[in-house]
Design goal:
Elements: H1 4-18, H2 23-36, E1 40-41, E2 53-59, E3 62-68, E4 78-84, E5 89-100, E6 103-111, E7 124-133, E8 139-151, H3 172-175, E9 179-182, H4 189-197, E10 205-214, E11 219-221, E12 227-230, H5 233-251, E13 259-265, H6 282-293, H7 298-306, E14 309-313, E15 316-317, E16 340-343, H8 353-366, E17 371-374, H9 385-393, E18 397-401, E19 403-405, E20 412-415, H10 418-432
Parallel strand pairs: 1-2, 4-13, 4-14, 14-18, 15-19, 16-17
Antiparallel strand pairs: 2-3, 3-13, 5-6, 6-9, 7-8, 7-10, 11-12, 12-20, 16-18, 19-20
């Protein structure tokens, strides 16, 4: 059986994922946990002067959190944990009501690299946020989470598509329209259902960021429950571990030697090119203000950044037993063997030898294993927020991640021990690395 400490962490991870069907919910879940650890939310329009201790900023589907002990000077270097809150999925279009042949359907757009076949014949709910009309000409936002099986993308029966097992590509334009009811297209039906779930009136809703999610609960798999299976492991495993590391730093008996930071960005799955993504100035702006708020100068900011380091934590590929030839023959990570350190000399990952040494030292302090990862030269290499953060801030970065299977699927898999290993390593990195 999985050791008890790792089982406890994995159990908590499943709770976190269940409460976080969208990037906005992931931020809310993380903020709630940080508040319990003594952190407080700061708004961009607040005066941050004199702010120390645990703080966080929420910006849409992104969250930046840090812990600044009073005893540390303003030029204390940062230890940044970079993650992302979003996952590939199907997102509801602004004009959602559609249908065909007597079926009510919902118009959706494909977000990120979605293996579309994994979304077929799954019971789907709706989550995200609504932009609402508020008094005085203002607007407000409200989260919505409908965990009921409202929708489904039905697969064509094999009798009507004999080539389905021959690798026939799914027609994105015609076949990705979930059904959710019978009867003629009813304009406004979806809006009424979603508004009611958010305890709002349909005419209050001015816009939305809504997406579909698999309502099957996360859980364990295997003869000894040695695997975690769930939606959105990429990348809520890392967000959850980063929150745990930051909370541990804030509640430790001894103040950390550095300023630990959690940067949980949105829109990584589509290139991070938004005001909440790793390419935006969000992290730079927040960290700069945190230095100024503690009485620091521009020289203190430069020194804090010059001594900074970032661990970019995103999911990684475990070797696939049915397609081992698609992996590098000398680098085939397995679940429950510890997080991987991702290396790509073309800088799709930002890792170098100094980063490997830093991460390996954190693993030693945490008593946790790690594995090297390199993509097969014949296969295109993925990327993460690591190179973006490195290029944006000029901060040395190492890319790491828990190895798993079925990445970007509607239901992914990883080892039940590895999320706990990652949290322990990130805690060691954030507090004394």
């Amino acid at each position: 059986m999985t050791p008890v400490p790792h089982r406890s962490h994995a159990d908590d991870l499943l709770t976190f994922i269940s409460a976080s069907p969208s990037s906005y919910h992931a931020v809310a879940s993380a903020a709630q946990r940080l508040e319990k650890a003594g952190f407080r939310e700061l708004r961009g329009t607040d005066d941050w002067t004199g702010t120390t201790g645990g703080s966080f900023v929420v910006h849409g589907g992104a969250l930046i959190a840090w812990y600044a002990p009073e005893s540390r000077p303003a030029h204390t270097p940062f230890r940044i944990i970079g993650t992302h809150t979003d996952s590939p999925n199907l997102r509801i279009k602004p004009t959602p009501d559609t249908g065909s042949a007597g079926w009510r359907q919902v118009a959706v757009e494909i977000y990120g690299g979605v293996p579309l076949n994994t979304w077929l014949d799954r019971d789907l709910g709706i989550s995200g946020r609504l932009a609402l009309r508020a008094p005085g000409g203002r607007t407000d936002s409200r989260l919505v989470q409908i965990d009921e099986p409202l929708l489904r993308v039905p697969q064509l029966a094999i009798h009507l598509d004999r080539a389905v097992n021959d690798g026939l590509a799914l027609d994105r334009q015609r076949h990705v329209a979930p059904v959710w009811s019978l009867g003629a297209t009813d304009e406004g039906a979806l809006l009424r259902r979603v508004a009611a779930a958010a305890e709002a009136e349909p005419d209050e809703v001015l816009g939305w960021d809504l997406m579909l999610h698999d309502v099957q609960a996360p859980g364990y798999l295997g003869a000894e429950r040695e695997f975690v299976v769930s939606s959105r492991l990429d990348n809520l495993v890392s967000v959850h571990a980063g929150v745990a590391a930051l909370a541990a730093a804030a509640t430790a008996a001894e103040a950390p030697a550095y300023i630990p930071v959690l940067a949980a960005f949105d829109h990584e799955e589509v290139g991070s090119g938004s005001d909440t993504g790793a390419q935006s100035p969000l992290l730079e702006r927040v960290l700069s203000r945190s230095v100024t708020a503690r009485g620091g100068s521009s020289e203190d900011w430069a020194r804090a950044l010059a001594g900074a380091y970032c661990v970019s934590a995103d999911m990684a590929h475990a070797v696939h037993p049915n397609y081992a030839e698609r992996h590098d023959p000398g680098h085939q990570p397995l679940p429950n063997g510890g997080p991987t350190v991702k290396v790509n000399v073309n800088q799709r990952y930002a890792t170098d030898s100094a980063g490997i040494a830093l991460f390996a030292a954190a693993c030693e302090r945490a008593g946790a294993p790690w594995q090297p990862f390199v993509s097969n030269n014949a296969m295109p290499c993925g990327t993460s927020i690591g190179p973006l953060t490195a290029a944006r801030l000029g901060v040395p970065t190492v890319d790491v991640g828990v190895p798993g299977l079925s990445m970007h699927s509607a239901r992914e898999l990883c080892g039940a021990e590895d999320p706990g290993h990652l949290a322990a390593i990130l805690t060691a990195f954030a507090t004394s690395g």
